[in-house]
């Protein structure tokens, strides 16, 4: 049974428009707006746009144009944004890279992308040094330093010196690549996800419906290489709002900025919400200007959603989706407080279905893999048609859907409930056990601050569930007591065999628990 939501096609002013043109319109409408703030630095459109134009013109002067790629590996900064947006103006594809990747992984990504320039900050310099000069596509002067100097590095200001500040007009097409984002690597070797100009244009249209307008003030506290960040940041700029960028997230800094800048919107990941709400002085901060708070990248616990809508002004919307696109749901927690265990209904223009292992569509209430299609879908995995093909499920109508790798079910009202990653499902004694079911139950206990459930080897059952728990501050609950409590609330096949307490759970930079890392010690010698 499919779940979908109709949407207007948006062929008027919200049809495809090159992102650079959207910026020019926003700048012309309010040239003295302090459009971006990062740390102590502030730029109005009249200061910011000429710098973006300089980057675009310099890239064009170097012979780079539509289809070419440039990579950025740097801390969040205004200069990072200048390069990102200038590359887009020139019709290039931007490749934002994660500083959490290893030097070896970064070398693979830069080679794979074919990037012809690499922009770097001092914080990430050491990750590039081992292979700098050994990538044929990057010329000797193609390693550009934002905030440091050294042999073999071209200074950023020197790089753009002399370039025209006039706008550069390029005939960009909807199918052109906008950015190439490498997967977080939680499941192995990162894959390059190509998002098109059209896909990003649709993101702008969708966020307009979430209240992103010329009056929006969006606080950006996640890294600029993350799709989580870009889906909120880019629409804000395009629609004439302001962005306040945190070079590095910290709870108190976030709260101070939110109050001082009268922030209206923020896209956060679950671990950030958890830490912000736990701040002892959270309730003392003036957050009344918030209109919408968004959460994505990992499931947000039911009790955290409840805490948000109780204590934090403004709407709370959880978004479930893929960087690859096609699949998207949204849950307005404030509107549907009785559906907090779900991730909401299909987003606008999204067709969602659930299929079994044979690719047969299932009925409402049945558990299977979530698949979806929409007007915002990736072009494919860069240079990997085989992986792109593996991602696709074709419906009986012959339409291409993206497979999520997530297991879930729809309730009678069309709300989607996530259960587990398909590959993370625990099979114990022939029964399918979904870690999310156990995690949700454990998270309801006041002594549990964080939890992840994994399958570990069992001579009797093949696999058996292990719960890794971070206790709430001040809690001294024992393993046996917590295990008895949760098992009394679970089905016989779901019961937890063991509980281990941890100080923290390993997460990637967008808040996803690294379950592969958690499982490894238990399986490496099996």
List keywords for this structure.
9-stranded mixed beta sheet, 526 residues, alpha/beta, GMP Synthetase, Chain A, domain 3, Rossmann fold, 6-stranded antiparallel beta sheet, 28 strands
Explain this structure to me?
The chain is an alpha/beta fold and 526 residues long. Among the domains are: 16-248, ANL, N-terminal domain (Rossmann fold); 425-523, GMP Synthetase, Chain A, domain 3 (2-Layer Sandwich). It contains 15 helices and 28 strands. The strands form 6 sheets. A 9-stranded mixed sheet has the order 3-2-12-11-13-14-15-16-17, sandwiched between helices. α2 crosses α3 and α7 crosses α8 (227-238).
Query: What is the overall pLDDT average?
Result: 92
Distance between the termini: 40 Å
- Give the strand order, joined by hyphens, for the main sheet: 3-2-12-11-13-14-15-16-17
> Helicity level, as a percent range?
25-40%
Number of separate strands: 28
CATH superfamily of the domain at 16-248: ANL, N-terminal domain
* SS class: alpha/beta
Which word captures the global form? globular
CATH topology of the domain at 16-248: Rossmann fold
The CATH architecture of the domain at 16-248 can be given as 3-Layer(aba) Sandwich
Low-confidence stretches: 5-13
Enumerate how many helices there are, as a single number.
15
Main sheet record: 9 strands, mixed
- At the first level of CATH, what is the class of the domain at 16-248? Alpha Beta
Strand content: 25-35%
């Amino acid at each position: 049974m499919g779940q979908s939501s109709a949407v207007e096609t948006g062929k008027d002013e919200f049809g495809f428009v090159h992102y650079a043109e959207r910026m020019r319109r926003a700048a012309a409408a309010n040239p003295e707006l302090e459009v971006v703030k990062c740390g102590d630095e502030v730029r109005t459109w009249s200061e910011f746009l000429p710098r973006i134009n300089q980057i675009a013109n310099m890239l064009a002067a170097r012979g780079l144009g539509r289809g070419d790629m440039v990579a950025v590996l740097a801390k969040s900064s205004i200069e990072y944004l200048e390069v990102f947006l200038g590359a887009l103006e020139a019709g290039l594809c931007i490749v934002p890279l994660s500083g959490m990747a290893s030097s070896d992984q970064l070398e693979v990504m830069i080679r794979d992308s074919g990037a012809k320039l690499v922009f770097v900050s001092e914080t990430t310099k050491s990750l590039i040094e081992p292979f700098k000069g050994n990538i044929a596509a990057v010329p000797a002067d193609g390693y550009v330093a934002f905030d440091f100097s050294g042999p073999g590095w071209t200074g950023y200001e020197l790089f753009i010196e002399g370039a025209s500040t006039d706008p550069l007009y390029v005939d960009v097409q909807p199918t052109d690549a906008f950015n190439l984002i490498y997967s977080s690597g939680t499941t192995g070797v990162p894959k390059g996800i190509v998002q098109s100009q059209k896909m990003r244009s649709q993101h702008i249209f969708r966020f307009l419906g979430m209240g992103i307008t010329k009056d929006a003030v969006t606080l950006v506290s996640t890294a600029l290489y993350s799709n989580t960040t870009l889906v909120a940041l880019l629409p804000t700029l395009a629609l004439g709002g302001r962005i306040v960028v945190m070079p590095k997230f910290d709870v108190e800094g976030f709260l101070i900025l939110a109050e001082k800048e009268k922030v209206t919107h923020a896209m956060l990941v679950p671990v950030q919400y958890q830490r912000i709400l736990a701040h002892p002085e959270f309730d003392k901060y003036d957050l009344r200007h918030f209109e919408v708070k968004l959460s994505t990248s990992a499931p947000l616990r039911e009790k955290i959603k409840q805490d948000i809508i109780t204590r934090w002004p403004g709407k709370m919307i959880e978004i479930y989706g893929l960087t690859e696109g096609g699949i998207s749901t949204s849950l307005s927690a404030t509107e549907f407080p009785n559906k907090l265990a779900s991730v909401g209904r299909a987003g606008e223009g999204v067709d969602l279905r659930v299929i079994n292992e044979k690719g047969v569509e299932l009925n409402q209430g049945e558990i299977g893999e979530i698949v979806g299609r929409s007007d915002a879908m990736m072009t494919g995995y860069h240079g990997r048609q085989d992986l792109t093909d593996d991602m696709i499920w074709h419906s009986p109508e012959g339409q291409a859907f993206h497979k999520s790798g997530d297991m879930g079910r729809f309730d009678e009202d069309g709300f989607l409930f996530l259960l587990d990653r398909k590959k993370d499902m625990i099979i114990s004694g022939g029964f399918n056990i979904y870690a999310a079911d156990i995690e949700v139950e454990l998270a309801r206990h006041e002594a549990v601050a964080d939890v992840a459930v994994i399958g570990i080897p069992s001579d009797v059952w093949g696999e058996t569930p292990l719960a890794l728990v971070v206790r709430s501050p001040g809690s001294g609950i024992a393993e046996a007591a917590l295990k008895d409590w949760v098992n009394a609330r679970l089905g016989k096949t779901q019961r937890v065999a063991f509980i281990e307490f941890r100080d923290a759970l390993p997460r990637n930079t967008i808040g996803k628990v690294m379950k592969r890392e958690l499982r490894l010690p238990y399986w490496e010698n099996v």
